[in-house]
């Protein structure tokens, strides 16, 4: 997308940008943010580097404060802002591919678009799958804009104004567009836009302070126009090749004209599912839908480890974030300690890592990361694996906890990526009581459709706050997008 019309650019520079230079508000509990450089550095370090003491940032500071930040601090502020949820959507429904090209639309009754809506896509060719699914659900019309070189912000606004229906606006932008966004976002409240999907491409080689300030000013204007974040995505396809914990593209989803944070249960309560009346196909669809509904609101969903496979999402809100001295169990390493190392680095946790397939023996991977060559199972057993010509040992979670002397300890994070063995292990973990002291559960389900187990997890107090569909395992049901592999993050509401 290129807003390069000179008259439009001049108009927005004089009017739009001046409108954006106002004193932004940042609320960090009851602390008033000082604009002294020393105080700024202290707050930056606290918010972004000390995970166990991180404070919840819900705004963007003034231009004066932003100018005192260096490039890395501006990046940190940007990435924390777009990854902090501002309202709750229980059903961020996926349309289109599970990989790049698909988008989430909030399908909650209060926030959903009306039938016959219009979708305006700017600088992005929507896939045939996305279009067919959206039309089947909402009977939307699709309008693509922005490919002509003389196209301007004013022209886009004119076309949206001409629509008689509620709209979803999809913008694909990069660093060349930041300076032109502020005027558009200040006027978005005057358009009939219900939801906004903002795909922000920003490569590290293109970073400058001025561009970050333009982008943050535009995001501030968007918040000023009552558009709030309900979902975001770190796009795997654009992760940094030099830093696997960083992405060059965020997709950020907004609900516009949303005044309240919704607090209600998932629309699909597993206790109401009639298990005995469902065949396997029905179970597959029911559980796939269940995994993609959020049941509780976590504002700070923090990625620990790699952006791509190997990293995991945890809740960093005050009630659930790991507290010193914290304890993490990580099952399924596959030679990737990025999650484990991040939990040690940012929270200072003692991390116990387990994988029977890694022939490296028990050892200390680092000061606080301890590796054990055993797997998680429903009972103690040994299995000979022909492919590796080795014997794998398995133990129950309760046995492992006892042997490590953690029987009465809170386990802040329990991560499980055990390639389908969760089908046998998870019921045993609940039956033995081993999950009762687990605060957060991060679990990849592999073609897992056991409704009785899901129901029991719910009864134990575990609520979904985030889920991610594996883009490599798509599952399509009659104009709906799901995945055979779901990375699901839970908080235990019985533990504070």
UniProtKB/TrEMBL annotation:
The keyword Transmembrane applies. InterPro entries: Methyltranfer_dom (IPR025714), METTL24 (IPR026913), SAM-dependent_MTases_sf (IPR029063). Pfam families: Methyltransf_22. Gene3D superfamilies: Vaccinia Virus protein VP39 (3.40.50.150). The chain crosses the membrane at residues 7-29. Residues 296-447 form the Methyltransferase domain. Keywords: Membrane, Transmembrane, Transmembrane helix. It comes from the Eukaryota. The keyword Mitochondrion does not apply. It comes from Pinctada imbricata. Coiled coil: none annotated. This is Methyltransferase domain-containing protein.
